[in-house]
């Protein structure tokens, strides 16, 4: 009986010690991830693109050099540099992963809630940036919309937008079901009425079996992820003369943009697509 009591006491002590160690480890991981997150956010405020690059695992880019260049390009625009940040919420997924909600305030008076995922990779905490548009992620919210006219007033070059071509493209032999982007990356939009215009042609080599359907999307490249500005679906063969289509966005301006083309999958017939055109805004 005495041995049983001693064994019970030992078990209780062991359980208590294990629980304490687990709690301390969880607390340590929580604090470590939050520390790196603060460092990442401070780097964005200070436009330190090199430090941002070291603290992220960004699935949009294939190399550190490409990542640094893209972050630098994004943060060179004053309206994209956060004025301040507040860590609102932390949720533990595991000892190696945490989800955060962060409030960011920008010079154009825009305020957003940004979801941020952090993981411990090879004993280093990293901010994880996926290829999914950030404004389509769960937890993303615009608290206060940007005052576009405020930034336009600060930059007189944008005060009176003029009709101008922002991007041209040409593609051929693109197999159906594929997604690809334009080569004319990093163009800016400044509009009067939240829209931009496409002047395009598109067609395929099996129009008798599948009618062309291409989605044209405009994305903004930001240091914390890509933002979908607007899109349109163009259905049917457009050949011989230019066909005009409009894309409406949520803001009067967009920076560091590129166009993504998504072609419908014909399923039963291998079909190749061709197309060319230009994007311009007023």
Describe the structure.
- The protein is α+β, with helices and mostly antiparallel strands.
- The chain is 24% helix and 45% strand.
- It contains four helices and 15 strands.
- It has helices spanning 2-45, 49-54, 64-75, 148-154, and strands at residues 56-58, 84-94, 97-105, 111-121, 124-129, 141-144, 164-175, 179-181, 187-190, 195-204, 213-222, 225-235, 238-248, 253-263, 272-281.
- The strands form three sheets. Strands 1, 2, 3, 4, 5 and 6 form a six-stranded mixed beta sheet that branches.
- Residues 9-14, 17-23 and 155-161 have low confidence and may be disordered.
Summarize the structure in short:
Strand 2 and strand 3 (97-105) form a beta hairpin.
Descriptive keywords:
single chain, 282 residues, alpha+beta, six-stranded mixed β-sheet, five-stranded antiparallel β-sheet, 4 helices
**SSE-based structural type:** alpha+beta
Mean pLDDT: 86
What's the main sheet like? 6 strands, mixed
Task: List segments where confidence is low: pLDDT < 50 over at least 5 consecutive residues.
Answer: 9-14, 17-23, 155-161
The Rg value, from CA coordinates, equals 25 Å
- Summarize the helix and strand pattern as letters: HHEHEEEEEHEEEEEEEEE
Give the overall shape, derived from the CA principal axes.
globular
Q: What separation lies between the terminal Cα atoms?
A: 90 Å
**How many β strands by DSSP?**
15
Figure out the total of helices: 4
Share of residues in helices: 10-25%
Strand content: 35-45%
